[in-house]
Amino acid sequence: MTYDAGGRCVEYDSRRTVFVDFAGHKFDERVHYRFAYETTSSSSGYVSAVTVTDDTSTRRITYDAAGYEIDSAFGVGTPLEQHTTYVRDAQTRQATHISVSCGAGGHARTVTDAVTLGQNTTAIVDRARIECDRQMLSASR
Asked: Where are the alpha helices (DSSP H) in the chain?
């Protein structure tokens, strides 16, 4: 790992075993991640966004002034770019709604869902992504 002057990780090498064949040979996947941080110009200088790139993709995560995620984009700059947007309560910063956009060309879709207190936001986002993909695929047929 490599860090910048602010102590933030700017490069990370990941290695994981993808599978092991019948003879016991391991097949690893190695990925080199690079992180680029954007900070505010205020005295607090909090991170307002981070862009994570590897050899095949780019992800950009945007944060509000309190440091909570408000947008997560996958496949940035490609025709298959996807966004997950979070609407947050001004007092509690809890997500109240999520919106997932997916697809390309004339088949782009957006799925929105409400989040109530105590619900697992990650599960709701996963469910919305699956529904978005399902709608996009059925529209392309």
From this structure: 121-139
Can you say how many angstroms the Cα of residue 73 is from the centroid of all Cα atoms in its chain?
5
> Contact 82/101 with Cβ under 8 angstroms?
yes
Question: What is the pairing mode between strands 109-114 and 2-3?
Answer: unpaired
* CB-based contact 88:96 (threshold 8 Å): yes
Compute the half-sphere exposure of residue 48: CA atoms within 13 Å on the CB side of its CA: 8
pTM of the full structure: 0.80
CA–CA distance, 133 with 107 (Å, rounded to integer): 10
Report the phi/psi class of residue 136: left, alpha or beta, with left for phi > 0 and alpha for psi in -120 to 50: alpha
CA nearest neighbour of 54 among 72, 33, 73? 33
Whole-angstrom CA distances from 120 to 86, 92, 96, 116 are 13, 16, 11, 9
Q: Are 36 and 51 in contact (CB under 8 A)?
A: yes
For residue range 6-46, list pLDDT tens digits in order: 889 999 998 877 778 888 888 888 889 999 999 876 666 78
Q: Where are the domains of the chain?
A: 1-18+25-56, 65-141
